[in-house]
Design a protein that fits this description.
Order of helices and strands: HHHHHEEHHHHHHHHHHHHHHHHHHH
Distance between the termini: 85 Å
Radius of gyration: 26 Å
Shape: elongated
Strand order of the largest sheet: 1-2
Structural class: mainly alpha
Number of strands: 2
Length: about 450
């Protein structure tokens, strides 16, 4: 009855108003105290719908608040939209870091807002425009019979889209006002990094977002040391408690970096010339911190690329292809200035004292297919012509570039052959000819010119 009553609060009522996100949980807690307490224990109250991939949902259950509806006023719509689409951690534990992966010792948190079935990404903006109000506005069987299922469903999707578009300006202004006044003093739904992450998902090209990120970066301190591991030598035998503080802080930092990269790539005019290079270095440093045995031991909770898609900064550089849902090793379109900046970051990283090869692998994994091979060529041209420690050319890919846009990479390697030390020369010839197999197969046929030259 109380949940149904909120349906009428969207018209001329002050019930569903808020100045800061924590106002929402304060009101909901007052209206539904028992239901919230039970939900914190992983319980779905009788009569409430268990929801997956919607705000309070995830696999732990939750309870449903009716709304928003398209004919509601703007602020009530924004109130319920934020309730539906902000990750559940923030609402359930408003006095803590909203990026925690555990509560009450063994309570595992999957901080889902909404998952885009096209990209597999867990995304606030997708929730606002595609999932928010889904159950409340879903066409009835009577509607589908009257106008046809496909027409009713298309109208329903358009209605959700319009609702999302209608709340974005108000949410943007609420976020900007709150962060301008409170900066990073809040926790839970008021955590500045969480709000920046949601804002960046919603409006990545907003110059106001760029200005706010720059203003708050000193508060977030993404370059400061992470908390220490309690038992750094334990490795694979570590306990979860040994690294919880370190990597819960690291996940929050990842969320900030994701928002920052989204802003830099979508509103470059609002950033300094060196902002991209600086952010890419922060990403390398963060991955270096996560490239330790503890994370491997507990990867299902702390690996950035595994169960942390909601904060994963690599996704900004490597969006998954349309139509995929599972975590895959996709190849993004890192081109132009971004590609140049990534190659420069890899070059700088190679000069570090002990860079983890896993950091290089992450860059290659999330770049297009040419990135690894271009990086090796770059290094061989400028660093004594030796193949670098953490990468080798992708010869299978390289052999296919005879007449493609990447033929300059292939011919770059060929031009180096006569100038390389013998071990590197032999290694390149071995790779380009597939251990001599291609030379043997092409003895009696017309092979491509470059293959003829090195098979002589």
């Amino acid at each position: 009855m109380r949940a149904n009553g909120l349906i009428f609060a969207g018209f001329g009522s002050s019930l569903l108003t808020f100045e800061k996100p924590s106002d929402i949980i304060a009101k909901v807690s007052a209206w539904f105290p028992k239901e919230l307490d039970k939900t914190r224990q992983g319980y779905t109250p009788p009569g409430f719908q268990k929801r997956f991939n919607l705000g309070m949902g995830s696999n732990m259950g939750g309870f449903y608040l009716f709304g928003p509806y398209e004919n509601w006023e703007s602020e009530p719509k924004a109130f319920l939209s934020l309730w539906n689409c902000m990750p559940q951690n923030a609402w359930l534990w408003p006095d803590q870091n909203p990026f925690l992966r555990f509560q009450n010792d063994d309570f595992v948190i999957f901080p889902v807002a909404s998952q885009d079935p096209g990209s597999g990404d867990i995304d606030f903006n997708f929730c606002l425009h595609k999932s928010n109000g889904h159950t409340s506005n879903y066409p009835s069987q009577k509607q589908m019979r009257k106008i046809g299922e496909s027409v009713a469903y298309a109208s329903f999707r358009e209605r959700l889209q319009r609702m999302g578009e209608s709340v974005v300006p108000l949410l943007r202004d609420k976020f900007a006002s709150f962060l301008g006044n409170y900066r990073c003093r809040g926790t839970g739904p008021d955590d500045c990094v969480l709000i920046l992450r949601l804002w960046a998902s919603m409006m990545p090209s907003d110059t106001g977002l760029a200005e706010m990120i720059q203003s708050l970066e000193t508060d977030v301190a993404p370059d400061s040391p992470l908390p220490e591991l309690l038992n750094p030598k334990a490795g694979w035998y570590s306990n979860r408690e040994d690294g919880q503080d370190r990597f819960n802080t690291g996940l929050r930092r990842a969320a900030f970096l994701r928002a920052k990269l989204q802003s830099i790539l979508n509103a470059p005019q609002a950033w300094s010339a060196d902002a991209l290079a600086s952010a890419l270095r922060q990403l390398s440093d963060l991955q270096q911190a996560f490239s330790v045995p503890f994370v491997k031991r507990w990867e299902r909770f702390y690996e950035l690329d595994y169960r942390n898609e909601h904060v994963n900064p690599w996704r900004v550089l490597a969006p998954k292809p349309e139509g995929t849902v599972k975590v895959i090793k996709s190849k993004s379109k890192i081109t132009g200035e971004l590609k140049t900046a990534v190659l420069a970051e890899l070059d700088s990283l190679s000069e570090e004292k002990n860079p983890a090869c896993e950091v290089f692998e992450k860059w290659f994994e999330h770049g297009e297919e040419s990135l690894r091979t271009e990086y090796v060529l770059w290094q061989m041209r400028r660093s004594n012509k030796y193949i670098p420690k953490c990468a080798t050319p992708d010869f299978e890919w390289l052999r296919q570039q005879t007449d493609t846009e990447f033929r300059y990479v292939l011919y770059g390697y060929l031009a180096l052959l006569d100038y390389l030390p013998v071990p590197e020369q032999n290694a390149l010839i071995h790779g380009l000819t597939d251990s001599g197999r291609l030379c043997a197969e092409n003895v009696k046929t017309d092979s491509v010119n470059w293959l003829q030259q090195i098979c002589k």
